[in-house]
Amino acid sequence: MSFSPRIRQLIDGLRGLPGVGPKTAQRMALHLLERDRGAGRQLAVALEAAMDGVGYCQRCRSLSEEDLCRLCSDPGRDDSLLCVLQSQADVWAVEQAGGFNGRYFVLKGSLSPIDGLGPEEIGIPALLASMQGRAVTEVILATNPTVEGEATAHYIAGLLRPKGIRLSRLAHGIPLGGELEFVDGGTLAHALAGRTVLD
Amino acid sequence: MSFSPRIRQLIDGLRGLPGVGPKTAQRMALHLLERDRGAGRQLAVALEAAMDGVGYCQRCRSLSEEDLCRLCSDPGRDDSLLCVLQSQADVWAVEQAGGFNGRYFVLKGSLSPIDGLGPEEIGIPALLASMQGRAVTEVILATNPTVEGEATAHYIAGLLRPKGIRLSRLAHGIPLGGELEFVDGGTLAHALAGRTVLD
Ligand SMILES: [Zn+2]
Ligand SMILES: [Zn+2]
């Protein structure tokens, strides 16, 4: 099938989205071209604005279009409580679950020596630096309940325990070996409320 | 969940794609922002080019960025054979099935008096006009095998039969009541090869 150049380019562009194969891309292209060009133009503008204008928060390392993200600059949140997560998707999942009003720090994944991901690569020194001069009394180590996530929590706990900071993990209820991002909000809210203190 | 404006706009823009709900849109936005900004920029460029630069072929009414589409301007195709379809998706489906080397005409759907879709609305006068001065000897009425599609084929057959043009329908093999667009290529190629002549 030889599509004309702009239609070909559109189908190829849509295949750059995760989970979109050739048939789905064709269906999307047809929908936009035949039924909703306004939606196509809006998406183009939104993509440009986001790809060029969204960076990372200097404090918590979450996606942000300001130096300091909305969660870090919100004066209504509890500075004494810091939740450490291993991805941006997890921040969104916890926020959407509700029930947490502290601050966040986003690691770049979890420790995985096989993949060359050590403390530096995933941002643990940046986590410690971000805590300096702040009155954090509890750190919730909300990494995934996987081998790597547990190892990451354990490693950070070893660094923070000498500072007398209360350390906690999310309560179980989260399926073992599962990914935080895909847990339903209710379970996640429950796990947050029932978080266990590390001794 | 209060996303920052550009991230909110991106998620909303992605929801303009068919079949993309809130969770999928978030996952797509994260993928583009965190893993592939190049793909996001390419999609933006492709959308702009396509939404503004793709119109309709003046002869066959299929999507085209030129006055005459590639299929109409290809000198290697058989001018004596005209396949009438009820959507652009059907043109792509027939082309992808292979085995057809004639020309096309794309109706805007099928006759549906209840919905106010008469011959004028779906482009039947334009079909007749496009055939003037051309040596079409056979018209394949490849509308869907639904009540409306059959009625549309029947209506067009009534107009063309007096002109001595051979009329055909796609061979069965296509599931009754089904949509052409979703039939697999093999079945579609088979149905084309075994098309039946209307008496
Ligand atoms: Zn922040
Ligand atoms: Zn054409």
Automatic annotation (TrEMBL), chains A, B:
GO biological process terms held by the UniProt record: DNA recombination; DNA repair
Zinc finger (C4-type): 57-72
Domain Toprim, first and last residues per copy: 80-175
Pfam families noted in UniProt: RecR_C, RecR_HhH, RecR_ZnF, Toprim_4
InterPro entries named among the record's database cross-references: DNA_Rcmb_RecR, Rcmb_RecR, Rcmb_RecR_Znf, TOPRIM_dom, TOPRIM_RecR
An annotated Gene Ontology molecular function: DNA binding
Sorted UniProt keywords: DNA damage, DNA recombination, DNA repair, Metal-binding, Zinc, Zinc-finger
Database matches in PANTHER family: RECOMBINATION PROTEIN RECR
Annotated NCBIfam families: recR (TIGR00615)
Annotated function: May play a role in DNA repair. It seems to be involved in an RecBC-independent recombinational process of DNA repair. It may act with RecF and RecO.
Family: Belongs to the RecR family.
UniProt-recorded name of the protein: Recombination protein RecR
Organism annotation: Halopseudomonas salegens
Protein encoded by which gene: recR
